Amino acid sequence: MTMELESVPGVGAKTAEALGSLDDAERALTEGDVATLARAPGISEGRAARIARAAIQTRHDDHGDFLATDRTREIYREILGHLQDRTVTDDAAARLRTLYPSAAESRIREVRAFTREALSRDPDPAVLDALDGVEPLESPGDVRVRDRCLVTGDAERYAQAREAIPEVSVEVVEDTRQLAELARSYATVIVLDEEFAGVDVEGDVRVQPDALDRPEAVVPERTLSFFAANREPLQAAIAVHRAADLEPPCELEPLESALAMLDEDGTPRGDGELDRLATAVDDLDAAVSTAESVANDHLREAIEERDVTIEGTDLLSLVERGAGVDSLLSRELADEYDAAVAAAREHLIDALELTDTESIARRAFPDEPTYPVEHTEEVVSRLREELTTARDRRATRLKRELASDLAAFRSAADDLVDAALDLDVELAVARFADDFDCTLPAIDALDTPENASPPPEPDVPGDGGVAIEGGRSPLLDVPFEAVEPVDYHVSGVALLSGVNSGGKTSTLDLIALVVVLAHMGLPVPAEAARVTRIDELHYYAKTQGTLDAGAFESTLREFGDLVTGVAEDRETLVLVDELESITEPGASANIMAGILEALSARGATAVFVSHLAGEIRDVASIDIAVDGIEAIGLDDGELLVDRSPVKGTLARSTPELIVEKLAADGDGFYERLLEKFED
Ligand SMILES: Nc1ncnc2c1ncn2[C@@H]1O[C@H](COP(=O)(O)OP(=O)(O)OP(=O)(O)O)[C@@H](O)[C@H]1O
């Protein structure tokens, strides 16, 4: 087990040990269950996500260098944020972190299969509502059970017993005398050794050599406390399965009714007979004293109503014999006394709903007349004992039955919750796709049958690159409804020119977004898109202002590494935003031309946004495509822009547009100025 874990890159002996403390580290690792991994001591969620990703990368032989620059990582984080905003449970949000852009075809294919499934899901509000109560199942700490013990004479079996059933004490006995002693202090003694079979000891002593194989039979409390602790998430997971019409891992009704019979503290509830017995034990004293009052009230009334006539000689003899009023009672009021006692007995039986203890209850009030009527304490004690025993026996039986019903659902319970949490992940993807009008992109070089007939294919030349039609980035600083669709196709190296604030940076963001999502195996926010599978995405955001000599040198080195350092056989996409700002314009144009030449030579796809596109093209020794985001005109000093770059067009700059507008008024100065732009 530990060996397995240590084969994951980045998992050292210490981390493997921490993960090993989880019951199901291996499962969590293969399923990308980040939240469970993060429950290992000292493992943060971020670290758990890295470990889960590393395990996936190992499985797919994926180098894991796809996100090659800060800006690419930032784009990935923003995508993840949008996805995580759409989960109901924290657990699903954590699981989403295992979706990452991968260079490995098999991984992309695997997630695309998941995505297809996800896109067929309907994020029904009832499902989302039910998901709210789902959370990973917890294992409650070991319960202590003190009325039972396990017994063996064998040291090895003793160790096994302590390991298998830590909830009860395990005792070593050598002889019958010691066993008898234990039988006096525990309600039940379970003997693990065959040799003790047939030994005659007083008490509840059971010889069960196979007890360790069925721990839930020895301690039904284990099963009951697990299900009691997890009742609500399980009920929610059942509701999710129903609302979403998921194929359940077990029958739902029996699980549901078994859960309904379980109290929060792990005791069975809802059993009329147990409730009756428990109430009878609790109410016994009160019912006895009420029954007494009933009898006495009855009798008092009867006496008050009666004229008792007694002959003088009779009275004398009664007094001389020292007889009390009781004998007077039995002589004169026998019928009334009988009626009073009968009423008391009925009350006791009715109030406590007694059935099989009815005959004992009758004897609680004596047949011999007394006034006031009094219960016989011995009989009441006996009744209490009978009721208590019946109650406890019933509770134990119910516990055992319920535990055995529930034990059958133990592994289905995990699957049930897991499926609900997975659905939450799928629904987040479905909602992301829906909210941002996404489609699954076609991916070149993903040679699979599922890709043989891709969705409407944007016309992109066969030699790779990226093609986007109607792409709308959710990362823009405007509400998504206001985002104008962008069409852009690029393959090989290209310069992207355009007016100020025309949307050049946003176009690079859109390309990066589409490429990252496509390599995550997810749908992209476009009407259609086609992406070539790449190994590394390098996106360099605009640097603020001119760099000093040192920073300039290190930036240059970075690009040097990019053209010479990245392995020749790695497919690379390079996006660069206004690199000219790092130094003076003349030098910048030379540097950018040189980098583009080198990238072109190694067959990379690259888009460089630059205001110096014309100058770069002039100094480059190869033909570099120049695309342009053009202004369609000026309206009240505001530029009207067509957000889709026009292929093969150097966009006019904003100053040129303004000069053109002024020249239109026929002023010679502006006309001459305009000619200079057109040279
Ligand atoms: N497709 C679009 N739909 C709607 N608004 C957009 C779109 N693209 C860009 N914008 C708006 O235009 C603004 C400027 O975009 P962006 O920064 O991409 O322009 P730029 O050409 O890179 O500008 P600069 O030349 O100053 O670098 C964005 O902040 C956004 O508000």
UniProtKB/TrEMBL annotation:
Its cofactor is a divalent metal cation. PANTHER family: DNA MISMATCH REPAIR PROTEIN MUTS FAMILY MEMBER (PTHR11361), DNA-BINDING PROTEIN MUTS2 (PTHR11361:SF125). ATP binds at residues 498-505. One of its GO terms (biological process) is mismatch repair. It comes from Halapricum desulfuricans. Coiled coil: none annotated. Residues 491-679 form the DNA mismatch repair proteins mutS family domain. The keyword RNA-binding does not apply. Belongs to the DNA mismatch repair MutS family. Archaeal Muts2 subfamily. The keyword Transmembrane does not apply. This is DNA-binding protein MutS2. InterPro entries: DNA-bd_MutS2_arc, DNA_mismatch_repair_MutS_C, MutS, P-loop_NTPase, RuvA_2-like. One of its GO terms (molecular function) is hydrolase activity.
